Structure prediction request, 129 residues.
Amino acid sequence: MTEFWNSWWAFAFMLAPFAIGFSGLLMILVMAYQNLDTILHTFPNSGYVIRQRMLWGDSGLHSRFVLTSSLAAIALFPKGHINRGDLLESELRNLPHFIKHRMVVAWWLCFAGMAWLLLAVGLLKLTTD
Prediction:
């Protein structure tokens, strides 16, 4: 197995999770500038969105990215926020489908990249000892 880790396949195997994860981050960054205003207008009365906007703001690169990322997380797992009353289900239904789909895909890409990276590091650790 050590000959694998000395090949170009290993390089590609270790580079792939970064490419996958960074593509998810890039999608969130693009949404931060193209879709954040639409997202914020969709949730005018949801407590979670109002608190996140007050906490992070929506003017700089970092604040728009973190705000979009946290709002994408509620698109992925909205039930807990709805049950607590932090998010109105009617406003979630008004979120344009293509934006919600992008949010979910971006988070899954980030998750898949992180899981792949953890698996790759674990395999590397197991085979080199």
